[in-house]
Amino acid sequence: MRKKIIFLSISIIVVFSYFNANGQVKYPYPFNPEQGIVNASEQPFRQDICLNGKWQFMPVFSDGTDDLKLPDHFDWSPVPIRIPSPWNVNAFAKYKDDDFVTFPSYPQSWNSALIGWMKKEFTVPSGWKGKRIFLHFEAVAGKAVYYLNGKKVGDNFD
What we know:
Elements: H1 2-22, E1 53-60, E2 81-83, H2 89-93, E3 115-119, E4 143-148, E5 151-157
Antiparallel strand pairs: 1-2, 1-3, 4-5
């Protein structure tokens, strides 16, 4: 009887271990859907380009405001940041009760970066020539400075 209980206990542990391991697999669905803010009924009159997705990222390990000036040289990380997500998602996730298994995982060193540079290349459709174009970001936290083709086009603090 004792052998059956031990065997059953080990079997249960193995089964639960298997399911727990599956909880750590890569998230198979799109992390950041490529849909914009213009709904279908407005699309004949307004158009948008969704900038969600992979961006180049360069963490800055300093808290000086001089780091908000456009650098002469960028040392981009080989790991892209997935927008929308903060680069320190791993740091704050461990303090929450939520399940962050499916969130992106970034290098641990990024957790201590207070400033970061991000870059996304995109092409404006030729049909937009002569039209007003707005650059809209939904959830930028803190100070942000925006550059387009190397020229400062705006900034804000949220």
